[in-house]
Design goal:
Largest sheet: 5 strands, parallel
Shape: elongated
Radius of gyration: 31 Å
CATH topology of the largest domain: Rossmann fold
CATH superfamily of the largest domain: P-loop containing nucleotide triphosphate hydrolases
Distance between the termini: 70 Å
CATH architecture of the largest domain: 3-Layer(aba) Sandwich
Strand content: 5-15%
Bound molecules: adenosine-5'-diphosphate, magnesium ion
Helix content: 40-55%
CATH class of the largest domain: Alpha Beta
Number of domains: 4
Number of strands: 9
Oligomer: single chain
């Protein structure tokens, strides 16, 4: 019977739609007056009801006569069970939701509630595991100026997923500033507030892998449907979608479906939407529908409290001056801040000795060195002369005008600090001076920086520019 229906349907719609919406249907049961079909998802069911009910009705009436009934069984797809975010749980009474209604009385509403859900043996239900890390919660996500907006937006979303204007919520910020942690915290918060909601966390990388796999296995539709049935979708590091047009396309469909149905979407990225390259415009414009909240570099106090919190959780004590030393020197990445602390603890327990400032210096140096960019004397001269709005030639010239001399000395000082070049080599590159001139410059800068406030500001500004 179903075969006949199919061939009738096939003759009446375009091949693509036939393939997408009718081939995945499985006939499960036939009586004199009713045909039960199994569809892959609720979304699928809604789509059929909305677009193809007439066609289905005609096809079925031809086969079974007037008054024929069509019964849907919705299967939470388990074909994908090899894929990551699934942990299959087959409850003792295998169950699926089922709805039953006459094709003569199709449901009018756009997203009909399924009526008479009951249990059909033999169809498995798949429970979606959220993939959340419970230790990444709001309590462990310390608040500071750098994250206040993002954190409170996240809390608002956790209290009312899908019910705020923060949909999607896009969290962006540099590496190691807490995007993943905050994204999990929102998911964990939602699970606490609404245990029945399905929350799914996925990294963009894994999403892409799964997508490619689904294309290979010819289960692309199942892939998309799977993501469309969650209440809350969290996708981490979406900048990694860059240049992956077909993954973006799949995500676009998922996003639209979720958004239209008032489900919450949370995204993270290491770039602002405007700076994301190779991401389709239609996606970028959708990201702007909600809220973009930035995670900035934490200030000194926040860094100190993050360290103290970590020590407290690990049950370790550390002298205040060492905590301050680490917080002062590792500024731009909380992961590294924590890494340095872990490394310190490991060193001291391994060697059975106190954590002292010497050890702290050594360890911090490793972290800072690794993140330092290679910088050339040329770049330094360019940055310094730009800062004082002069040409590099002026900076190198023989003139003794005070502000030019100062600029030249600063260039020498930074060259000594930030490159491995010798005094002599620095001298020869900055206007053909000798090594004694460079040494004198370094001393002068050090002296002035500690006595002259304005001059110290120059030093700090330029350092910041050089570190970029
Ligand atoms: P990102 O995803 O932005 O690269 P992560 O979320 O992985 O950064 O954070 C790096 C580390 O810093 C994690 O161990 C995280 O727990 C910690 N961290 C980040 N922000 C905070 C914060 N506000 N309070 C406490 N720990 C934080
Ligand atoms: Mg991350």
């Amino acid at each position: 019977v179903w075969e006949n229906c199919l061939s009738f349907i096939q003759d009446n719609i375009n091949p693509q739609a036939y393939k997408t919406w009718f081939l995945p249907i499985k006939p499960v049961k036939l009586t004199d007056t009713a045909l039960s079909i199994q569809v892959p998802s609720r979304f699928f069911y809604e789509w059929l009801e909305e677009h193809y009910i007439k066609l289905l009705k005609t096809a079925l009436t031809r086969e079974l006569g007037e008054g024929a009934k069509l019964i849907y069984a919705i299967k939470v797809e388990n074909k994908l069970k090899g894929m990551e975010p699934f942990t299959e749980k087959i409850p003792s009474s295998n169950r699926a939701i089922k709805s039953s209604q006459s094709v003569d009385a199709p449901v009018k509403s756009k997203s009909p509630e399924l009526k008479n859900p009951f249990i059909i043996p033999g169809i498995r239900n798949v429970k979606i595991e959220s993939q959340l890390n419970p230790t990444y919660n709001f309590d462990s996500f310390l608040e500071g100026d750098s994250n206040r907006l993002a954190r409170s937006a996240g809390m608002a979303v956790a209290n009312k997923p899908g019910g705020t204007s923060f949909n999607p919520l896009l969290i962006f910020g540099g590496v190691g500033l807490g995007k993943t942690h905050l994204a999990h915290a929102i998911g964990v918060g939602i699970k606490e507030n609404y245990p029945d909601k399905t929350v799914l966390y996925i990294s963009s990388e894994k999403f892409t892998q799964q997508y490619i796999e689904s294309v290979r296995k010819n289960t692309r539709n199942d892939f998309i449907h799977f993501y469309q049935i969650v209440d809350v979708l969290i996708v981490d590091d979406i900048q990694l979608f860059a240049g992956k047009a077909s993954t973006q396309d799949a995500f676009f469909h998922i996003f639209n479906h979720l958004h239209q149905n008032g489900r919450q979407v949370i995204l993270t990225s290491d770039k602002k939407p405007v700076d994301m390259q190779d991401i389709e415009q239609r996606l970028l414009s959708r990201f702007k529908w909600g809220l973009s909240a930035e995670l900035n570099q934490p200030d000194f106090e926040t860094r100190v409290s993050i360290i103290k919190n970590k020590l407290y959780r690990d049950g370790v004590e550390m002298e205040e001056k060492i905590v301050n030393y680490v917080a002062e020197n590792i500024k731009s990445n909380i992961r590294e801040l924590e890494g340095a602390i872990i490394s310190l603890i490991a060193h001291s327990s391994f060697n059975r000795k106190e954590i002292d400032l010497d050890l702290a210096k050594k360890i911090v140096e490793n972290y800072v060195k690794n993140t330092k960019k290679e910088i050339s004397i040329e770049q330094i001269q360019k940055t310094v002369s730009d800062y004082f709005s002069m040409d590099v030639e002026t900076l190198q010239s023989k003139t003794r005008k005070r502000h030019i001399v100062q600029a030249r000395q600063l260039a020498m000082y930074f060259s000594k600090q930030m490159t491995k070049a010798s005094l002599a080599s620095i001298g020869s590159q900055i206007g053909k001076r000798d090594h004694a001139t460079v040494l004198h410059a370094c001393k002068t800068v050090n002296n002035l920086a500690s006595t002259d406030k304005q001059f110290n500001k120059y030093v700090e500004d330029i350092r910041e520019k050089l570190m970029g």
